[in-house]
Structures are given as C-alpha cells and as structure tokens.
Write a structure and sequence with these properties.
This protein is α+β, with helices and mostly antiparallel strands. Helices cover 29% and strands 30% of the residues. It has helices at 16-34, 62-67, 79-84, 89-92, 152-169, 197-203, 214-225; strands at 3-10, 37-46, 53-59, 101-109, 132-133, 139-147, 173-179, 187-194, 227-237, 243-244. The strands form 2 sheets. Strands 1-3-2-9-6-8-7-4 form an 8-stranded antiparallel β-barrel, surrounded by 4 helices. The protein has a two-stranded parallel sheet with strand order 5-10. A hairpin with a 6-residue loop joins strand 2 and strand 3. The chain is globular, with a radius of gyration of 19 Å.
Length: 245
C-alpha cells in the first residue's frame, strides 16, 4: 500500500510564484529520481484555509518517504543519487527559507484503483514519467466519506465499477482513493481531477441533463445509502508540472 503525503505550506503571497518555480524546476524533478511523484499542487479554492499552498506527493511506503528527506534521508547519503540530482539541488536549496511553517497528513492509497505508481528508485534505473495533470487552473476535488459499518468494500465496488468510469468518460480523472490512518476507521477519501471548476460543478452529480446510464444512477443511489456523512474541499491547481493529458 503506497502513501500520499498532503502538505500545507504557509508562504507569503509575494513568494508563492518563487516557491512554485523552485519546486517545479528543482524539487519535483529531483523526486522523479527518487521515484516519488508530486501529483497535485495549488491552493484551496473552497473548503480549506486560504493562507497555504498544498502539495500531494506519493511514496511507495514510509521507508521511501523517509529516504527523500533532505539532509538525513538515504537518497541524500547516496553519492550516486546526489550525482544524478547535482544540477537540481541548487534550484531548491533555498526553498525552505520562504516557508513560514508547514503541516502534513497521510493518506494510505488503495493501489488497485489509485493512479500514481511511486517506486523506490535506485540510481541508474529508469526514471518514472512525470505524473498526469490537467495543468494550471484545473481543479482537484477532495471528498471524505464517513461510511456505515462494513461499507468500505461496497463503496469501492460501486465506485470502481460504475461511478468512476462514468466520470472519466465525461472528462474527469481519478487520482487516488484511500484513507487517513489517523482519522476514524469508517472514513475514506477520494481525489478526483477536473479540467475546470465549471467541469467539476457540472459533473458533481448525475443530473438528468447529463443523461447518465441507469446503472450509473443506481450505483450512485446505492452508494449514497452507505454514506453517513460527506464533506470536501477544492484545490485550484497552480502549476503545469507533470504530463499534460
């Protein structure tokens, strides 16, 4: 089970462009050498604090995450790896100086449905492709669902077989599905990307205007029956880092 680390950084508004540049040109490419993938960066447009920028970075496991820690992680002790990223490191070495503070949460991803494929990469191995993105101005919808007892498997089945494929046919893109190990055990979380805020709003429910197939509508209704409560927030993507799709 891979993990996603969602980290919020408090960065003054005048410094945000430079934070993104150092990340896009230096740190996130360095992470490709490590095999870790930054899959979404931006600011909360709705539902989250407005004074932070946010990264979502995927790792194979906690050993992999720790290996990427600057200065003390295994990758920064490996001379062959340091040689590989020698031109990238000067770009992001001063990045922390424009960060007032940061906080992070963990999401354990279900690898059978989540899209990122992080690997613990060794020096000299093939580099992973930059992760897929709709680019700057697109939207990532984070939704958390509190489920009824024993509802996890049915929620995932209905989503995987009916709801997510239909959303992707309409132009959305699943990033990840998982849960926060520090949150209540009945909660699950989805990260779904859309090309714009308008597209997210258009596809946020299977309205008659969209003419979804009846099996999709039925799955949505059945899934609703096992959701006790749900809440969400919208990330406005603030970078073109990645492979445009």
């Amino acid at each position: 089970m891979s993990i996603l680390v969602q980290r919020e950084f408090r960065v003054d508004l005048p410094d945000r462009e430079e934070f993104e540049r150092q990340s896009r040109e230096g740190l996130w490419p360095a992470h490709l050498h490590f095999g870790s993938l930054m899959v979404a960066f931006g600011a909360w447009g709705f539902g989250g604090p407005g004074d932070v920028v946010v990264t979502h970075t995927c790792y194979a496991d906690f050993e992999h995450w720790y290996a990427t820690r600057a200065g003390r992680g295994a990758f920064y002790q490996d001379q062959a790896m340091l040689q590989e990223i020698r031109e990238l490191r000067p770009i992001y070495e001063s990045r922390n100086q424009i960060v007032a503070s940061s906080s992070a949460r963990i999401v354990e991803l279900h690898d059978d449905v989540s899209r990122p494929r992080p690997i613990y990469r060794r020096p000299g191995g093939a580099l992973p492709d930059p992760p897929a993105t709709f680019g700057r101005g697109s939207v990532v919808s984070e939704r958390t669902y509190a489920l009824t007892e024993n509802g996890h498997a049915e929620f995932q089945r209905l989503s995987k077989e009916r709801i997510w494929p239909w959303l992707e046919q309409q132009g959305g893109r699943l990033i990840g599905f998982g849960s926060d190990p520090l949150a209540p055990s009945n909660e699950v979380m989805t990260l779904f990307a859309f090309r714009s805020l308008a597209e997210w709003h258009r596809l946020s429910r299977p309205t008659a205007e969209l003419q979804p197939p009846q099996p999709v509508v039925a799955a949505w209704q059945q899934r609703h029956q096992i959701v006790q409560r749900q809440w969400g927030r919208l990330l406005i993507v603030g970078t073109d880092f990645g492979t445009k799709v």
